[in-house]
Amino acid sequence: MRIAVGGLHTESGTLNPVPTRAADFRQLRGAALLADPYFAFLRGFDATFLPTLHARALPGGPVDPAAYAAFRAEILDSLARALPLDGVYLAMHGAMYVAGMEDAEGDFIAAVRALVGPDCRIAASYDLHGNLSERIVAALDIFASYRTAPHVDVEATMRRAVAMLLRAGQSGPRPSVVWAPVAVLLPGERTSTEDEPARSFYAALPKREGGGVWDVSFQVGYVWADEPRATACAVVTGTDPAAQQAVAQGLAARWWALRHDFAFGMQSAPLAKTLARALACPTRPVILADSGDNPTGGGVGDRADVLAALVAAGVGDTILAGIADAPATQAAHAAGPGAELRLSIGGTLDPSSRPLSVTARVLTLAGSGTDRQAVLEIGGIRLVVTERRRPFHALDDFTALGLDPRAARLVVVKSGYLSPELAPLANPGLMALTPGAVPQDVAALPSLRRRRPCFPFDPA
């Protein structure tokens, strides 16, 4: 089988004022795409895979229309040159918002369908925080999405999608995708599959597969995108539409019944209360998540609210990783280790973010080009500043800078639920309900284009 591979993978918060431009995407083409560890799983399949373009960016603000148009055109051109094809595999996120456009994935996937024709099978893998639409469902033959949040089944999901694509190329009825939207839209922090009721709900999905039901997925949706397609939904791939519809509607009804039961998996409160709770803990390390400015959820990552609270409280033995601040990072690299600087920290990207003036000593420098980091000492706080927006969710992110989160009294990260590497270290983990582009008080979010009624925006 001849299968083309590509995709556009990002998550866009419509409250984030920082546009996502072409340079923000990691772009894989040709042999580099197939050789990349992200797509290494393809080597286990008996098919000829033809690379197009895979562009992936850290969640952020709306995608620049020119960047989207260029990526879209490149993938379509690659597909046209690869014809004839037996299948197309698209590795997506599903929550991309292009400035001035509704349903960017719908536009992209429909264009792929129009180019390859009705006989070519198209499969897509999604993040469970992606948003679907009728246009997307109609253009796909096969769909699979993550069943874990935090996401530890990314490769397994991609394998599911490709395995079904090869299965569809064999004899038998052609698969289709059936979906059932449900008017619930909650943040990932309240629907983590580490916590009930999402844990049991998602664990039961594979048990509904069999016969003409090939794959059962469920989308939490992406709440920080104010557009009509943002909603939870069940999505079922198979060859028995009646059975698929029954499964999808049953899951949608179950999610609706559970809507009031979803809660934060960590102790959560406004910043002042959360910080007081953290400082009262006799155990270590306490890990505090600055949830409203979480870059992996679509936040900006440049807010200094937590830093200001730590400085005001005179807190020591703390690691704060990190704040996106290119000027501060560049100043630290220009001055070098040991230098003492007067710096303005934060507020370099988001106009609503208030900077903090501090005196800092440069401890450690790392990175190169436009992706440099610096560790600054402010009293007893070791602050990481970065030239580019980025998360600190893996232990290697800390150890590369000479920092050991296991030894600190308090560790602050810009995150919602904690990553799989940090969560086991937290003793305990606390979530601060902080301001930013991805706040947890989702019912108060603007809903200019969101489809209503929808829980929790409308009580039900």
Short description:
The chain is an alpha/beta fold and 460 residues long.
Describe the overall structure.
- Strand 15 and strand 16 form a beta hairpin.
- The chain folds into 2 domains: 260 residues, no CATH class; 176 residues, no CATH class.
- Helix 2 packs parallel to helix 3.
- The strands form 3 sheets. A 9-stranded mixed β-sheet has the order 10-18-11-17-12-16-15-14-13. The chain has a 6-stranded mixed β-sheet with strand order 2-3-1-4-5-6, with helices on both faces. Strands 7-9-8 form a 3-stranded antiparallel β-sheet.
- It is 25% helix and 25% strand.
- The chain is of the alpha/beta class.
- The chain is built from 11 helices and 18 strands.
- The protein is globular, with a radius of gyration of 23 Å.
How would the blueprint of this fold be written?
Elements: E1 2-9, E2 25-29, H1 30-35, E3 48-57, H2 65-82, E4 87-91, H3 104-116, E5 121-126, H4 134-139, E6 142-145, H5 154-168, E7 176-182, H6 198-203, E8 213-219, E9 232-238, H7 241-258, E10 267-269, H8 271-280, E11 286-290, H9 305-313, E12 318-324, H10 326-335, E13 340-345, E14 356-368, E15 371-378, E16 381-386, H11 395-399, E17 410-413, E18 429-432
Parallel strand pairs: 1-3, 1-4, 4-5, 5-6, 10-18, 11-17, 11-18, 12-16, 12-17
Antiparallel strand pairs: 2-3, 7-9, 8-9, 13-14, 14-15, 15-16
